[in-house]
Q: What sequence folds into this?
């Protein structure tokens, strides 16, 4: 049966209401690419999401509309998801004590600078 | 130079056909929204359709400055005989192969037209031509990428794109149907004219398509589809206009 809809576009498309089952054929399924957006020259590219595309050329064209259609953007990178190497979640414990190491965070130094300055002022 | 009444009439004719082409093309392409072949392409194609509506609005605003009615009234209350778009843009979306071939042929003509108008003596037109340059560049990049992709896909994809191009080509030649004021527009430095545009367009699309292994029919063997610029249209335009203006007609005075 053909779907009839209040949306004329749906009716015009003459869609079948029998949902297709079965696995996707290789040609129906594209690779995924990860998208990185740079908002201003000189700043870092930031990961904004992923998309399906048959190759890098179309991935860039799709990324432009999917991730850079609002707000500022000066540059986009796309990388095949398969080309990204990542840590394993089961090794997450390698990061476990990191939050305690405050001395590694630059904010700490800024505060220390201010404390030292305050102390110096008190002593003078 | 001082513009005479004929120059102004020619300018309006130019603005109307450009605005109508973009309005109808934008509406047609938006019919793919939600039905595109894949999500990413659906988003890109819909977004470009919106761009076209925006470009047509900018042109209708220029017409308003020249004394025509406000854009909504002009866009939503005319019948098909009062529209000046070419037949290419009013044809139904068909299968995606036709929509892509049309997108390719129309958008390249549009890109060249706007590039020519960047030097127009009519400042409003040269301003928006510069403003939309990047937007239109993306549209032609997108169109060319698909022509290239499908030429390298399967035998079927290439054959379908070639027949879609053959079908769209005579319609696309209708883009360049001359108006009544070609000489006046050229004389005033407003626009170099349809003949100049057509020869630039032919040169570009023939060589680019050849690069991807397609062949356009010989222009001597093809009859351009004319009439649209003079208000003669196919049976496809009026139903489109009815659907496009449906919401507006419920309450034409509504404040949006």
A:
């Amino acid at each position: 049966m053909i779907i009839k809809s209040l949306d004329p576009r749906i009716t015009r498309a003459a869609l079948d209401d029998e949902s297709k089952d079965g696995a996707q054929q290789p040609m129906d399924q594209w690779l995924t690419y990860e998208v990185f957006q740079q908002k201003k020259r000189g700043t870092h590219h930031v990961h904004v999401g992923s998309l399906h595309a048959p190759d890098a050329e179309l991935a860039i064209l799709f990324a432009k509309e999917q991730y850079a259609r609002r707000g500022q953007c000066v540059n986009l990178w796309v990388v095949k998801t398969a080309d990204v190497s990542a840590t394993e979640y089961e090794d997450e414990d390698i990061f476990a004590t990191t939050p305690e190491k405050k001395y590694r965070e630059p904010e700490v130094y800024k505060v220390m600078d201010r404390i030292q300055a305050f102390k110096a002022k008190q002593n003078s | 130079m001082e513009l005479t009444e004929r120059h102004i009439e020619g300018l309006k004719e130019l603005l109307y056909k450009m605005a109508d082409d973009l309005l109808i093309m934008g509406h047609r392409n938006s019919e793919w929204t939600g039905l595109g072949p894949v999500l990413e392409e659906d988003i890109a194609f819909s977004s470009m359709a919106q761009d076209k509506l925006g470009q047509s609005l900018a042109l209708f605003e220029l017409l308003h400055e020249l004394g025509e009615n406000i854009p909504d009234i002009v866009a939503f209350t005319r019948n098909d005989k009062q529209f000046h778009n070419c037949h290419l843009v009013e044809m139904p979306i068909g299968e995606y192969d036709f929509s892509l071939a049309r997108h390719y042929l129309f958008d390249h003509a549009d890109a060249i037209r706007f590039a020519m108008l960047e030097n127009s003596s009519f400042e409003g037109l040269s301003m928006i031509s510069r403003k939309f340059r990047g937007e239109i560049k993306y549209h032609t990049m997108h169109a060319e990428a698909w022509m290239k992709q499908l030429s390298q896909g399967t035998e079927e994809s290439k054959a379908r794109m070639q027949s879609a191009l053959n079908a769209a080509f005579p319609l696309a030649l209708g883009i360049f149907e001359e108006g009544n004021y070609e000489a006046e527009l050229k004389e005033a430095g407003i626009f170099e004219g349809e003949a100049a545009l057509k020869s630039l367009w032919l040169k570009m699309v023939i060589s680019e398509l050849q690069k991807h292994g397609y062949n356009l029919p010989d222009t001597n063997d093809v009859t351009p589809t004319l009439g649209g610029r003079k208000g003669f249209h196919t049976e496809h335009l009026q139903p489109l206009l009815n659907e496009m203006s449906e919401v507006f007609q419920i309450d034409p005075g509504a404040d949006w």
Notes: Residues 5-213+226-248 of chain B form a domain with the Ferritin fold (CATH 1.20.1260.10).
